[in-house]
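Input record, target 12 of the design panel.
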């Protein structure tokens, strides 16, 4: 039987031969997932032997990673806002940058709405990263999660269950506001939030293979100029937000100016762009008149 140390050395060697930034870390994450231990365990027990079964699974994982499958799709999980999310191919992996949108929404709730109950709509819910976090961190909230992808909704529901907020969230399948159907929910929402697809169509194919070959283009492709969803959601949000309600979007690093125009054109006020930790535009928000 092989030892932990041997597997880590050999796995790292294989990943070193392909274009991966962190071969050793990835190898350790894949092995720790199979052994169900923290990585620190490897430093404590490098000589511990690994069963043949686990060894075979380990080489399967390494092979997937060699083909540049994201680690998150191999281990089927990603942490977001301190919570565990399940992810699978077909659903976008939540990004750390998206926490800015969630944190800002919580911040506005605390300052302007607490202790009242609020209605929140999340458009393009994906894994449920945004909607589940808001449900968890804003106690008095009723949430509606919309996605056109049945796979996304299935995973989002599982994530709501696992984080014990399933009874606060209504999941609707459909395109943008059509998902709400004939229900009379005009001016019913305090917040509409969205991280929509925002990569210009032609740019999607130039993204790194880790993204373009594995993540759903349905979650990335924002149309010719990348702004299709922002125009449609901003226009629709005017009908569904209460007066004084907030619209918040995640945006691409070069979309701040365009988004300010789109929100102002639709008569949102106090329009602001927030930057991410790298100093790039990341979130735009505005208040409905
Ligand atoms: N909210 C998740 C997050 O932040 O990690 C996922 C965001 S992902 C960038 C965009 C999501 O929008 C995808 O889950 C995709 O399926 C969904 N989507 C694409 N077109 C849509 C449409 N017309 N109506 C509703 N959702 C749509
Ligand atoms: N942030 C994602 C990326 O880097 C894009 C997500 C989106 O289109 N909303 O690929």
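The sequence produced for target 12 reads:
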């Amino acid at each position: 039987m092989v030892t932990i140390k041997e597997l880590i050395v050999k796995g790292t060697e294989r990943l070193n031969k392909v274009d991966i930034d962190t071969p050793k870390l990835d190898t350790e994450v894949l092995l720790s997932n199979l052994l169900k231990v923290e990585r620190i365990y490897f430093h404590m027990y490098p000589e511990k032997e690994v069963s043949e079964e686990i060894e075979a699974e380990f080489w399967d994982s390494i092979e997937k990673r060699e083909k540049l499958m994201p680690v998150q799709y191999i281990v089927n999980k990603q942490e977001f806002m301190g919570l565990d999310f399940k992810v699978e191919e077909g659903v976008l992996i939540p990004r750390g940058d998206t926490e800015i949108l969630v944190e800002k929404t919580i911040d506005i709730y605390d300052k302007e709405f607490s202790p009242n109950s609020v209605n929140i709509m999340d458009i393009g819910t994906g894994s449920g990263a945004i909607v589940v976090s808001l449900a968890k961190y804003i106690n008095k909230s009723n949430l509606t999660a919309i996605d056109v992808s049945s796979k996304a909704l299935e995973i989002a529901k599982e994530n709501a269950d696992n984080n014990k907020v399933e009874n606060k969230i209504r999941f609707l399948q459909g395109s943008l506001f059509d998902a709400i159907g004939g229900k009379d929910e005009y001016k019913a929402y305090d917040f509409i939030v969205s991280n929509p697809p925002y990569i210009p169509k032609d740019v999607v194919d130039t993204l790194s293979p880790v993204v373009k070959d594995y993540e759903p283009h349905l979650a990335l492709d924002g149309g010719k100029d990348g702004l299709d969803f922002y125009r449609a959601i901003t226009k629709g949000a005017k009908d569904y937000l209460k007066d004084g309600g907030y619209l918040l979007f995640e945006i691409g690093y070069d979309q701040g100016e365009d988004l300010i125009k789109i929100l102002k054109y639709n008569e949102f006020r106090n329009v602001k762009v927030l930057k991410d930790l790298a100093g790039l535009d990341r979130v735009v928000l505005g208040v409905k008149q």
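The longest strand covers residues 241-250.
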